[in-house]
Structure formats: C-alpha cells, structure tokens
Amino acid sequence: MCGIFAYTGKKGKDAGGVLLDGLLSLEYRGYDSAGIYTPESGSVRTPGAVAELRKKIPKGFKGKSGIAHLRWATHGEPTEKNAHPHSDCEGEVWVVHNGIIENFKELKEKLIKKGHTFTSDSDTEVLAHLVEEHLKKEKSFEKAALAALNEVNGTYGIALQYKKEPDRIIAARMGSPIVLGLGDGEHFIASDPSPILPHTKKVVFLEDGEVAVISPDGHRIFKLDSTKVKRDATNIDWSAEATQKGGHEHFMLKEIMEGPEVIENTLRGRLIIEKGLAKLGGLESVAKQLEKIERVIVVACGTAYYAGLVGEYMLEEYAGIPVEVELGSEFRYRKSVINEKTVVLGISQSGETADTLEALREGKRRGALTLGIVNTVGSTIARETDAGVYNHAGPEISVASTKAFLSQLTALALFTMFFGRQRGMSEATGREIAKALKELPEKLQQILDTKESIQKLAKKYSKARDFLYIGRKYNYPIAYEGAIKLKEISYVHAEGCGAGEMKHGPIAMIDENFPTMAIAPKDSMYEKMVSNIHEIKARKGPVIAIATKGDKEIAKLADDVLYVPETLEMLSPILNVVPLQLFAYYFAKEKGLNVDRPRNLAKSVTVE
Ligand code: M6R
After folding, report:
1. Least confident span in 219-228, 534-543, 592-601
2. Taking the domain 450-608, which CATH number applies?
3. Which residues, at least 6 apart from 55, have a Cβ–Cβ distance to it below 8 Å?
4. pLDDT in tens, 464-474
5. Hey, which bits of 283-441 come out as E strands?
6. 304 CB under 6 A from ligand 1?
7. What span, in angstroms and rounded, lies between the C-alpha atoms of 547 and 559?
8. CA 304 – ligand 1 centroid, Å
9. Top-tier CATH class for 3-242
C-alpha cells in the first residue's frame, strides 16, 4: 500500500536511477500509479507500473536528490494527475504521502479562497499548498513544513522537498511508517527498509508525531512542537539479496520454499528441549505479569487471523487459558470485558496493519497488557506493544502471506509452551512439543520435495471455478487459510468451512464441478473427516485430501491425495497448510496471473 522513497547524496549518483530502483523494491506493497521528482528535472508521473514510469522519463532527466512514490488510490482515481509527487502552485514545494489527510476539504477550501489552484483530486496536494502558504510568512522551508504539518489531521508518512533547497528533504510520520537510511555522504527516506538496504543497513525509525530532515551529510529528528529527538540507529541484517527472488519465478514460491529455514529461524535459541521449556527473551520483562493473566484476546487480520485461530486451540488445550480471536477490524467496536489480567495479542507480518494496530491501542487504553507476534523489526506494532516476539521469517514480498504464516504458527506454539509451563504443563509434555517442533523443518522439506506433483494437480483442476476447503479442530482454520490463498491470487471462488458446518449450508453447492479440499490427517478428528468426505462423494463432488503419509484408506475414497508427514496434532497445521499454499501458487500460475501482486490487494494494509 503506497510506498515512499527519497534520496539526497553528494556522491555524484544519478538520483533518478536510485529512486526508480528503490520503487521497484517497494512494488510488492501493491500500487496503481507511480511518480518521481528531482529539483533539476521536475516530475514524471504515470498510472500503472514502475516500468511505465521508466519509459516515460525523458533522456537527460537528472538530479542529485529527489522524491518518488507508488500510489494506491484512496482519494481520486489512479490517473496521472492524481499520482504523486504533488506540488504547490509554483512547482516549488513537492510532496509524496502515504495515508489520508482527513481535514483536506476544509484546508483546500481555505487555500482556494487565498488564491491557490489545485490540479488533482488527491487529499495530498493540500500539503504542498499549505507549505507554500506558510513559506510566505516563515521564509524557512523547515518552519513552513512544520507549521503545515501542525494544521493537518489524519494519517501520514511524508517526504517533502523544496526546489530552492534541493539538498534537503523533510520526512514526517503520523500513523504511517517512515524509516531513514543513514549512508556515507547520502541519506534516504522510505516507507520500509527494503529500498534502503542495497545502500546502507543503518536505519532510524520515526515515531508518530516526529519530523526528520535529511541532507547528504546528516539527519535531524524533532517533534511537531520542535523539541529535539535523539534516537540511535538500528542495523538491519536483511541482506539486499534476501529481498530478491533467489532464482524462483515468483517471490511466493521462493517464500514457500524458505519454510524449513523460517521455522528454524523462529525457533533459534528459543527451545530448551531437555527441560521442555520455551525461552522467549521478548516476554521476560512481563513474565511475572503473565503468570496472573486470565484471558488472551488475539487480534489480527487475514492470514494472521487464521494463525490466531490455530493459536486458540493450542493455548486452550495445552496452557488451559481462555482465548478469543477477534478480527482487528471488529475488536474496538465490541465492548469486550478487559482488565489488567487480559492479554491482547496482536499478530501481524508487517507490524503496520491499521486494524490490528488500532485494536491493540484500544486494548491498551482499556488496561490490557499488549503483546505482539510480528515479523517486521521496528514496525509500529513491534514498538507499541508492551512485549512480544519477532518471527524472524525475513522479508515477505509476495502479497500472499506464506512463510510468515508458518512462523506465526511456530511462534504461537512457543507461546503455548511458555504460557503452559507457567500453568502446570508437565516437563514431559513440554519436551514432546519441543522435540516435535525441532523435527518440523525436515518434515516440511519432504512436502516441498513433492511440489511437482502438486503442480500437476493444480493443472488438473485449473478449470474449476469454485472450491470448498474443509477441516476440523486444529485444521479448521487451515481450511480458511487454504481458501484465502487460492482466492486472493487466482480470483476463483474458494470457501473455507469447518467440516461439521458443511451440512448446515455449504454442502448444497456440491456437485461434480465443485471440488473440495479436505484436510484429513490421522488425528483425533480423522473419523469425522472421513464421514464428511463420504458425504461429498455421495453428491459426486471431487475430493482432494490432505492426508497423513501411509494412509491408504483415504486414497480409496478421495479422487486425489496429497500426503504430509505425521506430527503432533497441535503442530499439524504447520505442515498441512503447505500443500495448500503450493496448490494455490501453481493454480494461479497456470492461469498466467500476477501471482506476487494480485489485483486490488496491498501487502501492508495501513488504512482502516
Ligand atoms: O501484515 P499482516 O500480517 O498484519 O497482514 C494481515 C493481512 O492483511 C494479510 O495476512 C493478508 O490477508 C494476506 N494477503 C493473506 O495472504
């Protein structure tokens, strides 16, 4: 969702090239138009992709500094005139913006009365004019920008540039992430670290209500009331290569294939197998408080929400703690009963999902202890929660979340051991979970090694227009996750369903053209799943079963079977979801679709 990149340097680099390359690494966020500005050459904007922008840039376009943007439309259609950067009347103040200026209408009316002329439908343009207006009194760009920012309400991540002071770029953050990159003789501003990492690993994250000024030689941070902020830089160890596709055709496949390594990374240093303990450094500061916790409310969206549903089964069964899982977008409209013995646990890959973030803030306001399971280091959720753990899954570029989901489930298993051992889980049970966790990467690799057969299966079913996904208990959320994966990248109708619910409605859809994915491992729900498969077969529905290796019975019943190695029931979702991810991937690929950047979707949804 919208991406910002800005550069200023004295190394003789071509800012245009630096900015365009940076935009490419932000593409994964999802966008519908792109634009660039340098004080020397002006602006170029276009609807569509960065490749289009590159084509439109005239020969001789140059600059030592500049700002660039990928826009995902909110106010105004994705057209050239609405693409960022936007400027003031004179073409001197330029701005790129993520977020929404809520009071833009009032501000725009005021500015029009003062003689300003607007050229777009975007809320963002108002900022450039507001700075222009303040420049009439202030004379200093920095002061004018600060005055303008103090007048706007809403959310923003911003980079502002003034033609008369080309070296300096001003950034500001209110609800939409901004990170500074600190290079040697060059500085950067971006909405996430990915475009910065090829240049420097040294970054500083801005907090809400902070403004920064970068120049080739340095940076300064201050608050909206001008008080100075001192913040140490963080070293981000994601290599630039890690954000590339690593030889795979798509990021999604690369990220699925990284699964075994991701699980190892999530577990690294966190298991004391012989004692059956999970050691979670991120929870140490609140460990005493957690002993008294009586209830956990998980808040999350999309795939992270389905991870939360699996966590509910884990925590209730093994830690004996009541858990509720709530959509981030619904939580704050409920009057949930919360007190200081409640944990509100946010799960988020990006750490920037607005609905999850707001749900956590609401939990905090109402007195809960807030925790996070977050992948993106330094993200807003990571910073605002009282404590938490990082997934350590590395950057996830494809819009469809795959490896992050595996790491979320792995982290939830660690949480379960942590909470469980605080509440009477035996050492033997802890050991059993720890051992099973350690075995997962190798078992997962066995599934990945069968990817060609999953590809064949996807081809076989590629003409189907509808799919039902069913599962029970731990694998009931996996039915939903399998369905969201297929629909978001292939635009085919796919419906998740608790298998027991089938007879209350969804079974009416079944016929010979309506295949069902039945997640039926040999666990406590096996017999019931077999009955459900019989019900579907009786209505001529094709069935693809996800089954435990060696289960010959199910092969007699289902049309096709994808086998998965056996593990503990609570951990089985971590394995069972992978054939579903691969199926969705190959299905969309078979249709020739843009797997990594599905239509209408953004990687990080930073608006509510
Ligand atoms: O960054 P988050 O984990 O908070 O994102 C939550 C959802 O937007 C995300 O999981 C979304 O559902 C994915 N596209 C699913 O693949």
Report:
1. 592-601
2. 3.40.50.10490
3. none
4. 999 999 999 99
5. 295-300, 323-327, 342-348, 369-374, 387-390
6. yes
7. 12
8. 6
9. alpha beta
